[in-house]
Amino acid sequence: MSKYYMVQDQQKCIGCHSCEIACKSNKGLPAATRPCQVIQVGPKFFNGKPRTSFIFMPCFHCENAWCVAACPTGAMQRREKDGIVFVDHTLCVGCKTCISACPWGAPQWNPDIGKVVKCDYCMDRIDQGLKPACVTVCTTHCLNFGRTETRPALKRERYARAMASTKGAAVLE
Amino acid sequence: MPEKSCPVSAAIAELDDLLQSNRLDKPKIRRIVEEMRLLLNDIAWGRAGGDHLPAMESLVQEIGDISSDAVVDHVKTFVESILQDHPETIRSHIESHNCPSGECVKLAPAPCQMTCPAGIDIPTYVTLIGQGKDAEAIDVIRKDNPFPWVCGLVCTRPCELMCIRGRIDKPVSIKFLKAFAAERAFSHREYRNPPKKPENGHKVCVIGAGPGGMTAAYYLALNGYQVRVIEALPMAGGMMMVGIPRYRLPREVIDREVAMIEDLGVEFVFNTRFGRDLTMAQLKAEGFEAFLFAIGAHTSFKLRIPGETDYPQVIDAIEFLRNVALGDRHMPGKKIIIIGGGNVAIDAARTSLRLGCEEVTIAYRRARTEMPADEEEVEQAEEEGIHFSFLTIPVEVVGKEGSVTALKCLRAELVQREGSSRKSPVPVMGSDHFMEADAVICAIGQQVDHQWLSELSELKWTRRNTIDVDMSSMATNIEGVFAIGDAVTGPATVIEAIGGGKKAAEAVDRFFNGIPQRTMPPVPVRRARVDWLEVPASTKMVLKRPEMELLNIDRRRIMFQQVELGYSENQVREEARRCLRCDICRRCGDCVKVCRDQMKIDALQMGYLDFDHPVKTDFRLTEVKCIACGACAENCSNNAMQIIDRDNERILSLCGTILNRQKLVYCENCGTVIGPAKYLDFIKKRFDKAGQVDADHAVCEACARKRVVPFDTESVPVKR
Amino acid sequence: MVFHKGQKVEVFKKSDDESWKTYMDDFIGSHGIITDPDSTINDPDALIEVSLLDKGTHRLPQDCLRPLD
Description:
The complex is a heterotrimer. Chain A has 7 helices and 8 strands, in the order βαββαββαββααβαα. By secondary structure, chain A is α+β, with helices and mostly antiparallel strands. In chain A, strand 2 (37-46) and strand 3 form a beta hairpin. The longest helix of chain A is centred in the last third of the chain and has 11 residues, at 154-164. The chains are: A alpha+beta, B alpha/beta, C mainly beta.
């Protein structure tokens, strides 16, 4: 895994897809190319009420990334200093093997340039001290990004709060 | 398609769109846009000069003066912005003949078209013939050459020498396909003239009804000029008619194509020699403003040996061939000797044979390998029984009572002279001998006869005794006087004369419209980009260029019947499928490099791509290693290499040659294509190397993403 | 120098011949094929037709040409 975390507080996400738009416009991508994607699950019924969740799917920047193994040209690489998995467009020839290899569907095809594009946490922005494009536009601030060591214990805190509340305990069962 | 980055080609595309649309409804605007298009084209091809930008600017000005409407404003602002926003790029096109984005080169014609002196769009017409569209093919050819049938039979076919297919096996039979299509089009009454522009009131006089002169007349007439062609002989055709013998080019072929030109309103005046029967002053008085000299090279060189002028049986080949063509079919003698080693010597020999001469010998001063005549011609002559006497130098024509009896000759040996890479024939002392003959024909070259041009006293000539012209525009040093064909090049080819005629017609048009002339000869124009013919790799490799069937040898020795019998329809259609469509594949080799160096698959064996060091090519070998990843297609800048999914297969093709077909595998989940098994295996193998296991997921990327998304209970909104 | 049809050649220098025009300077270094030598008498002084890669077909004096391999 990379030295960063990217977490989505799914309870806050309202599925506005701003993150996708920001990502595309930052990278200049056509409609069907989605380095990150908010996937709608549901609606399903819970306690007789419909519930939908919106799940943010970027690249997970795997430690032993299959896309990197699959790439015959060395275009798909892990950045030494922080573990970001990215495509070097000067080396990518568009064979799409990484797309077929990835179990998460992270590498995406950009038909405009005939090359693969994927989430690289906007490493050019990171290097300038900025946050990834998706994070900066998140309306509900449900996307959080930072270095792993500073990751907030969001889930733990929420669990603790839920345990403390009698109503919440029932929900979490 | 990504947006065009070169302003010049973007402007050309825009103007083309405009010209093709109905938006240019005012003739004046149309004319201005057409002229702009012409100038931009020169700029794109690096043959523009210093006058081009000012001319563009004055056209913009001119269009600005027209009462404004939507189209006028659009053209004006568009062209103005192109000129103002990209001065550097445009100057680079003009001054260093360089298109920085390479965009202008993408329109590059195929090598065959580049080679053709007339610039015919060969890949397009060959493909149309392959589709059975003969008349359309002829329409395409006649955009650059009004004589497809003649050229289909007698062209020296420089295109075939450059044909890329020739690097694999043999060149495509480009020449003959034309003749087939022309014959078909005539026979089906579909050989037609393109629409003519309205008359513009200018009169042009063409002197000489040969291929060059008539080509110029054709394009000038199409452009609205009133054209008169003056010819000294009693019929049209020039050297095609009186130089090329009928067994190579039947008269009807010339007649029919000339009739098409006549149909455009071109006026022919026969039996009229310029300089003898009429003068420039007379023509000018009649209102002719431009003159095009296409007088050919009809005067033979003399041997300058004793006896040459003493006997009527010593004739020159050009005169002999002319007389025969005009109907004087008497044999010059029973036993004749032809002196020379070129195509004219062969033509004279084979003609003599057909007139009934019993023994025909060609005497040539050098060895067989140095004969300048075409090999095929020499072979056919030998088959017919022509004798050759090499290393033979004639020294005297000998006769008795006013008739030739023999030719006195010396034997020669070839000696390397100092400072010359070529061996010269040197007579062997004491080798003189007599070759019995009752007629001698000299075929040692022709030159331009300039005695009739004395009226044009200031006309500049070259030291080679040809009319001096600027080869970019065929303009002579006299304003409004142009010259083309053999009169300019010395004895050359039909197709070169045609190319010159077309060039001159355009130059005349520029002359009348005040458009600057080119500074470089024109680059051929692509006429279309027709779809390729789909051919499996095995067929592409196996198809062989058909052998030309010849008339039986006995008939060939006695009749002027056409020797080459042509191909069958099936042979023609199949032959068209051998074309590699080099108008689309530009042979940059990027596909090969990507596959070999980056993908490390090395499936493409296409050695023909290299002119200097062609190595083996076999399209059939692609499928052995190819995994159908499509990287080659992705990196093909001209969409020649394509990968498509069709009927459960992934198909890789190069200009329609199917290199690989693989059965497709579909997403288990949604049925989307995820690629052929061989491709998926390639990926799996790479995991094995990386120590990965179980990459056996036959789902598409979208489903992969969705499949791994759990319905996370945490995300369910908490009940308030 | 006398060339034959189909021979591969290089334009290796400028010619001093009067037929050499400035636009031909662009041809120097180009490779091509002889498409029409002087087919009558093999005159070393004749202009011959050469087709140059990507540069079209032109009549050139023979002293600027040399055979390739």
